[in-house]
Write a structure and sequence with these properties.
It is a single chain. The protein is α+β, with helices and mostly antiparallel strands. The protein folds into three domains: 216 residues, Serine Threonine Protein Phosphatase 5, Tetratricopeptide repeat, CATH 1.25.40; 143 residues, no CATH class; 91 residues, no CATH class. It is 57% helix and 7% strand. The chain has 27 helices and nine strands. The strands form two sheets. A five-stranded mixed β-sheet has the order 1-2-3-5-4. Strands 6, 7, 8 and 9 form a four-stranded antiparallel β-sheet that branches. Strand 8 and strand 9 form a beta hairpin. Helix 3 packs antiparallel against helix 6. It is globular, with a radius of gyration of 28 Å. It starts with a helix and ends with a strand. The relative contact order is 0.05.
């Protein structure tokens, strides 16, 4: 098999596609590759070092040495995870990397990887090498003790891999070859075929395969029904989608958490808020709690919430009550506010994301989209306010962007920092863990005892010294100061930066639009070279002036 791809294994020249190597292709068809990449034991930093070394190579021989050294020094799981990542990204180095993997002593042929490599070869213009790889793979399966089921599964993987790259005609060729082979056998084969047909948007053929599966004695499960129903939903065939969903109960499938979430995902695929709302209420009556996955795809299907979380405008709601109120007044989708409110009536997702102990309470945002993370943070703050006692430390775990659409861009962390900062939260980025925001109990208790709200319009703001808006003003000011001083810390004894020196921020309790450049310079000077110093701040406000005192160790 290595011979089949040898002709195209020379290191490819840089291409526009290669320039976007860090960007992950978000496509359902690469779900199997994604699972291999995520759970394969490969270090993200190790993969980044590999990519960096490959980008610096100038000759095919140098790139080959880098790849072979990586494969030889890593475990089987780590090397296969790196291969899966390269294939997901359509990286041109995936082909020589696959060649190196096939020569490793631990190599075992994989249907998923072979199909993905064949599709990448053909999409890059190497059709002859692609066909040779496919032919050799099928011959290998026939020559060994492999069952006909494994050959059928390979055809299904080829359908998925080629259709995901826009080569629908070739995918249909593989479907024809699959049907021309001996009759399908096994539940796994039927499931793979149904999934591939749905990826190709062939809902009718997928439903026919579902019926054939049942007629051959393989009882379909909620997963297979969900695939077909979502395929109809994405095509806009709502009546057909409803019919397939209804047929689940006729097939004797009990409505548990898995089946309920699959039905919910069908409605989210076509953004039918009314049906989602009705289904969530039915789940509540049946005492079926929403899961993290349900929380994600319901909120991701809410356009107004998505816009808020992405734009982070000045009027961003900072509590669940404000969020629902704004949705009722601003959302063009009438059921969106009710849908979000219904989702918030259950604390199952929050309870699972929170970890309480005597020493720490931790909110784990791993696995949440930025939209879902925004809503969960609001729900979490409400829950924290209701608690009478807190452990010694409070933290929010956000990650550093390993699973972002663009790897290394920590979108969830950026959102959490911004939202909590606007609330006046004392949580700051940990110096030891860049994917974690942390604060001590006493500071969090003081923060939770205050009140905050979203900024109001300029016209309605009372700027008088005795106005009732002093608290929002102070929170806004401290947020700006916090952004300026972030990373320097505030935990050590301090002395004045300049004895007797204070910085006037402007006229009383009016608006402070910017932190003066003089203060920024003083912060940099106090921090010292490398930015390792610690600063303290003291803010004095009167009706006529706002004064800031800066301190350092």
């Amino acid at each position: 098999m290595a011979v089949a791809v040898a002709a195209s294994l020379s290191t490819p020249a840089p291409s526009p596609a290669a320039g976007g190597r860090g960007r992950r292709r978000v496509n359902v068809a690469v779900a199997s590759l994604r699972r291999a990449a995520a759970g394969g034991g490969s270090s993200w930093r190790s993969e980044r070092r590999l990519m960096s070394e490959l980008e610096r190579t100038v000759t095919p021989g140098a790139a080959e040495r880098v790849i072979r050294s990586y494969v030889a020094s890593k475990s089987e799981r780590a090397a296969l995870a790196a291969l899966s990542r390269l294939l997901m990204d359509s990286d041109p180095f995936a082909i020589p990397f696959y060649e190196a993997v096939t020569q490793a002593r631990w190599f075992k042929w994989s249907s998923i990887h072979a199909a993905a490599v064949a599709a990448l070869l053909e999409s890059n213009g190497s059709a002859e090498e692609s066909r040779s790889l496919i032919s050799d793979s099928i011959s290998r399966l026939h020559s060994t003790s492999s069952s006909s089921e494994e050959v059928s599964l390979f055809y299904c993987d080829l359908m998925a891999a080629f259709s995901s790259r826009g080569m629908r005609d070739r995918a249909m060729d593989f479907y024809s070859q699959l049907r021309a082979s001996p009759p399908l056998s096994g539940k796994k084969t039927y499931t793979a075929m149904i999934k591939s047909l749905c990826l190709m948007s062939l809902a009718g053929e997928a439903e026919a395969a579902l019926r054939e599966m049942a007629s051959r004695g393989h009882q379909p499960e909620a997963f297979q029904f969900g695939l077909v129903a979502k395929c109809y939903g994405k095509a806009g065939s709502m009546a057909e989608m409803e019919r397939v969903i209804s047929s689940m109960s006729d097939a004797g499938i009990r409505l548990g958490t898995g089946a309920a979430n699959i039905v919910l995902s069908c409605y989210t695929s076509c953004r039918d808020h009314s049906r989602m709302l009705a289904w969530l209420r039915r789940m509540r009556k049946l005492r079926i709690a929403p899961t993290t996955k349900a929380f994600n795809f319901v909120l991701n299907s809410c356009p107004t919430v998505a816009s808020m979380a992405q734009e982070l405008g000045e009027s961003l709601p900072l509590s669940t009550a404000e969020l629902v109120k704004k949705l009722r007044s601003a959302s063009p989708w009438p059921a969106e506010a009710e849908l979000v409110q219904e989702l918030l009536t259950s604390s199952s997702v929050l309870d699972k994301a929170m970890d309480w102990s005597e020493s720490e309470v931790k909110l784990n945002l791993h696995g949440f989209s930025t939209i879902a993370a925004y809503v969960l943070i609001l729900q979490w703050v409400d829950a924290m306010k209701a608690r009478r006692a807190l452990p010694l430390e409070v933290s929010v775990v956000c990650g550093i962007g390993k699973h972002s659409d663009v790897r290394g861009e920590p979108k969830v962390r950026e959102l959490a920092q911004e939202v909590l900062s606007r609330m006046g939260s004392p949580l700051r980025l940990s110096m030891r863990n860049k994917g974690r925001l942390v604060a001590k109990r006493d500071r969090v208790k003081q923060w939770l005892a205050t009140d905050w709200s979203s900024p109001v319009d300029e016209e309605s703001t009372d700027q008088s010294p005795n106005g009732d808006n002093q608290q929002p003003f102070l929170l806004t000011l401290m947020r700006k100061l916090g952004q300026l001083l972030e990373g320097y810390g505030t935990d050590k004894p301090c002395r004045p930066v300049i004895e007797g020196k204070a910085y006037n921020l402007g006229g009383g309790l009016g608006r402070v639009e910017e932190i003066p450049e003089e203060i920024s310079a003083a912060v940099s000077a106090a921090a010292g070279a490398g930015g390792t110093g610690f600063l303290g701040v003291e803010l004095a406000t009167t009706t006529t002036a706002c004064t800031l005192h800066l301190y350092k160790p």
